[in-house]
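Hi P.,

Sorry for the delay on this. The queue was packed all week, but I finally got your sequence through. Input first:
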Amino acid sequence: MGMRINQTNPALPAARQAGTAAKALNKNLTALASGLRIGQAADDAAGLAIAEGLRARVRQFTRESGNLQSGISMIQTAEGGLSAQQEGVGRLRELATQAANGTLTNDQRAALQTEAQQVLEQIEATAQGTEFNGRQLLNGTAAETELGVEGGARVEIQSSTLADLGLEGINLSTQEGAAAAVEALEQAGEQISGNQALLGAQQNRLERAVEVREAGAEALTEAESRIRDVDVARAAIERSRNEVLLQASFGAITQSNLGPQMASRLLGL
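Then the structure:
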C-alpha cells in the first residue's frame, strides 16, 4: 500500500481528544481548587437549584435562631426586673410584719413607713425602667411581642406596676394598716411569682425552638455540602486520568506527524 503525503491529517482525531482531555482537566483543577463540584449552573443545573434552596433555608433558620435568642434575652431582662421587685416585696413584708407589732410607738411605725415608701418607689421605678432595646417591659408596654419566625412565636410579659400588684396606698403608720399590708404584700408576691413562672415557661419553649432550628440548619448544611462540594478523592482520580489522556493525545499527535515528515525527507521534499 502506498504512502500518501497530502492525505487528511491523522493527527486530527488525537487533537480532538487532546482538547476534550484538556477541558476535563481544567474542570478537575477548578473543582479541586475551589472545593466545589458545582461552580456554575452548567455544571449541574438541577443540583445547583436544590443546593441554593437548601442554602436559603439554612439562612432563614439562622436568622430565626437570632430572633428567638433576642426573645430569650428580653425574657431574661424582664425576669431580672421581677426578681428585683420580689426582693422589694419581701422587704416590705418584713417591715409590715414589724409595724403590726402592738408594742411599737407611732414614731417607730412612721420610720418604718418612710422606709416602706422608699421601697415602693423602687418597685415602681423598676416597673417603669426595665427596658430591652428601648422597650419598657414591666409597665404594660410590651405585653405581647412577635418574634417573626415561621410558625409563630411571641413573648408575653405581664404588667407589674404598683397598681397591678395592688400595692398603692400601703400605710404602715398604724397597726391596722400594717396588718392589711401584710395580706396585700403576700398576694403581690404570689403575682410576681406567677409572672416569673410564665416567663420561665416561655424561655424554655424558645430555647427548644432554637435547638430545633440549629439542628435543622446543621442537617441542611450537610445536605447542601453533599450536593455542591466536590468529592476530592474522585476528582483527584479523574484529574490523573485526564492528565494521562492529554499526554497520550500529544504523543499520538507527534507520532502521526512522523510518517508524512519521513516520506517528505525520503523524496527530498
